[in-house]
Design brief:
single chain; 121 residues; 4 helices; 0% strand
Length: 121
């Protein structure tokens, strides 16, 4: 689960940065405000990469997804991008857990785990 969720969060890191560039063009927003908010969100996305497997990590990830969708009130395209990343987050959590369960089953049976590292010696 960690790999899939971290990949989604790294993608969000870049999308948040690009949204900040778009938001800077709004004359009603101060540049310092835009980059403070974007910087905090970008930092949070990086920190969550390490926290995703800890208790509450997935819930914090959902909070970030909600903030990403809500950022559509400032940059309207973010409604779409936020929804897309929320769907990716759901898929990362859902299928990541299934992969983790399958690996645990294989480990309990004493078989090598299927996947890229199965053939590595």
């Amino acid at each position: 689960m960690r790999t899939l969720c971290s990949s989604t969060l790294i993608g969000e890191f870049f999308v948040i940065g690009f949204a900040g560039l778009v938001a800077m063009k709004d004359p009603d927003l101060a540049t310092s405000t835009v980059w403070t908010v974007c910087g905090i969100a970008m930092f949070l996305s990086l920190v969550l990469c390490g926290l995703v497997t800890r208790p509450g990590g997935v819930a914090l990830g959902w909070g970030l997804q909600a903030l990403l969708v809500a950022s559509g009130f400032v940059v309207p395209t973010m409604f779409f991008m936020g929804a897309m990343f929320a769907a990716l987050w759901w898929a990362s959590v859902h299928y990541g857990r299934k992969i983790d369960e399958a690996r645990a089953r294989f480990a309990a049976q004493g078989e090598p785990s299927p996947g890229p590292s199965a053939g590595a010696a």
